[in-house]
Predict the structure.
Amino acid sequence: MPKHRRHPYTRADLERWKAIAEANTPDTPTQEACEFAPQISSFTTLGGGIGVVVHVKLDNGETALLGMNPMIAKYLALNILAIGQRLGWLDKDNNFTL
């Protein structure tokens, strides 16, 4: 990586990842899916290269590796926080509500 770059990706990479994500967005899950979707019981993460890898363990004992470029990782994180606030799990500072 050249010394003048702080990140291993470019503005063009971000635009390309955004276009790919927008062109491949799956349908929004239904409320019924909440009842049947495998639940993540634990996870570990690693950031490196260009993105994040999440290793999840499901409640049925299976594991899966999920790779995310920085664009996907950012929007997933923001969506999880927004949903937590909207549903009342999290306050405006993203602390759990009791």
User: Anything to note?
Assistant: Residues 70-86 form the longest helix (17 residues). The chain is about 35% helix and 20% strand.
